[in-house]
Amino acid sequence: MSKAKGKPNTSGARHASTELVDPSKNPAFTYGDNAALQRTLGTDQVKFGDALGNWAGFYEGGLGRETDPYAQEGSDILSRYKGIADKYSNPSTARSADVSSYLDQMRAGLAGYSSPELQGMREQAQKGIDTQYQTSVGQTLKAQSRAGVRGASALAQQQNLERQRIGSQQDLEQGLFVKNADEKWNRLNQYGQAVQGVETNEYNKMLDTTGQYSGQMDKARTSNQAMQQFNLDRLAAEKSGRAATMLSGVDMAEARRRAKMGDARAQQMIDTANSLLKKGRGTEASNLMIAASQSNGSNSGN
To answer: What DSSP letter does each residue of 60-114 carry, written as one string?
Structure first.
């Protein structure tokens, strides 16, 4: 008897397929002690009930079982999701080499301008001071020559220009100090914002990948539970169906046995009636024939 495959469960993340089992490869259920059943109900009756259960498909696996043909693929997918989730849940692996290098460079610059950078700005500013000083000295000398200023007065004017030059140099150093302090603060602020941005991004990735892995786990768990429940339901149906068919088969076999016994008794009565008839005992023979006929009719009714 051919049976259609059971409807596969599709409530989970993957489609399951239903497979039928060959009864010759999977023994039928046994209900307690079969020998005791045979002693109670009769060997032939129990065997007939078993055969009827096999014919109806009520043996373990006879109604089909759901299997997951994508179990390995599903396991690989879960492994990948878990690998990604583990990566972003560990600070040592969540951050890329480029991001780490970028933050390292920013952290290295928190001290402000480097010595070569400060020296370059100092030299450039010093050139402006020197140029201004030389221009001022030249203009002063020309003015002194036209005005005829000499001696102590001329020297005092030149010393005043020198003091201005020294003051400009002091202002330069102070300006460089203030500029470097501002640069330190700006860099520290930028570094703090960068770290906060990176850590926020890493935290969000950790939440997202963990959530995705958890979602895939839930799908796989739901699919597996539905498949297990389907198979348990099939197992229960096979057991209850086999019990019913076995009892029905026992009843049928018992009815056949009783019918055969009734036929044998009727035939015995007919043979006895024929023997009585030969002996001239017609009345007794007639009564036995009537009784045999009634007995045979009763068995046919059963």
So the answer is: TTTT-EEE-TTHHHHHHHHHHHHHHHHHHHSHHHHS-HHHHHHHHHHHHGGG-S-
Residue 9: is its pLDDT beyond 50? no
pTM: 0.51
- 10 Å CB burial of residue 64 (0-12, 13-18, 19+) is buried
User: Other C-beta atoms within 10 Å of 134: how many?
Assistant: 12
User: Which whole-number Å values give the CA distances from 84 to 31, 51, 202, 289, in the listed order?
Assistant: 51, 55, 12, 93
What does the pLDDT average to over 162-178?
Answer: 90
* In contact, 30 and 46? CB cutoff 8 Å: no
State mean pLDDT over 142-149.
80
Instruction: Tally the residues of the chain.
Output: 302
From 91, 58, 62, select the one nearest 249 (Cα to Cα): 58
Q: 3-state class of 26 per DSSP? A: coil
Residues 6 or more apart whose Cβ sits within 8 Å of residue 241: 53, 56, 57, 58, 63
